[in-house]
Amino acid sequence: MDSPPSVQKAWIVKRRGHPRDALALETIPIPALEPGFVLVKIEAAALNPAGYKMMELIPNILVQRPHVAEFDFTGTIADRNGTHFNNGDKVFGMIWSEKKRQGSLAEYAMAKVEAVALRPDNLSLEQAAGLALVGQTVWQALFDVAQVEAGQSVFVNGGSSSVGLVAIQLLKAKNCIVGTSCSLKNFDLVKRLGADHVFDYKAKPLEEQLSDNPPSPKYHVFLDAVGGNNALYTHSEAFLAPKGVYIYLGGGLRNVSDIFKEIVGAFKGFILPTWLGGTNRAYKFVQVKSSQGSLQHLCEYVKQGKLTPPVDSVFAFKDALEAYDRILSGRATGKVVVTIP
């Protein structure tokens, strides 16, 4: 393939704020490769809630701005840089932009070799773009942290979210019993993927619905992909088994007030002893770390037809701001993808 150019177009996070205020499309140099990294010609990138939340919440002093936006990508190896990959390999993976100012919403990106995997042949470009971050988050939460076993009962809060849709598929591949929450209009979607019990979170507070109708046996794991409702954890003894685990993935944070509420709720729930009003259930917060192990697990499930990454919508590179409007609407069921020429 042709040698990469010296410059490229990229969407740059310039400042803290809403994506329409924080982002600018600019021409920047192609990154100089370091040992252990490959250069990828990006073909598509997926937007993540973490992307816009970092823009809106984290002050400049805590993150290296300006930097290229976003994490998830699929593309072609442009420079293997002495690694086991070959130039021209079709790959997918993820990048943490705050580390080296790199990101996936660009024509080229430098990616750590451990965070890149060959793209399964049965994945479309758009599907592959959004697999690495959400897939590894779910895998590590369920199978590394919670150590879910075949046949166990798991509740997924936010079943129609990208995290929820992947979680349901992976759990059903393990023959688990899956309860989940979503709006009434998405019931058919989550049931098609195998959800056994579905709750309309709009009907009445979810913690009340679950407390009034606990499963038998109770859930072994509660995966919270939504956040913002500490009452779910403080009520969890009613529907979560005594040795069950409540896993929080950091959703629901949109401003400093939300962060404060989560901290206060966490203190009341799992730091205080039960005799002072604490909750007698394990609470885990999961932050994803890219690894070849979890990437390869995901690839195997994709190849076996047991996992199909959900895609909500696709936008052109020049229309990235419209893509952010879509993910910020809260109505996306699956990944919002940006294709890059």
Automatic annotation (TrEMBL):
Listed GO MF terms: oxidoreductase activity
Signal peptide: none
Domain Enoyl reductase (ER): 18-338
Cellular component aspect of the GO annotation: mitochondrion
Family matches, as InterPro entries: ADH-like_N (IPR013154), ER (IPR020843), GroES-like_sf (IPR011032), NAD(P)-bd_dom_sf (IPR036291), YIM1/Zinc_Alcohol_DH_Fams (IPR050700)
PANTHER family recorded: ALCOHOL DEHYDROGENASE RELATED (PTHR11695), RETICULON-4-INTERACTING PROTEIN 1, MITOCHONDRIAL (PTHR11695:SF294)
Name of this protein: Enoyl reductase (ER) domain-containing protein
Native organism: Hydnum rufescens UP504
Species classification: Eukaryota, Fungi, Dikarya, Basidiomycota, Agaricomycotina
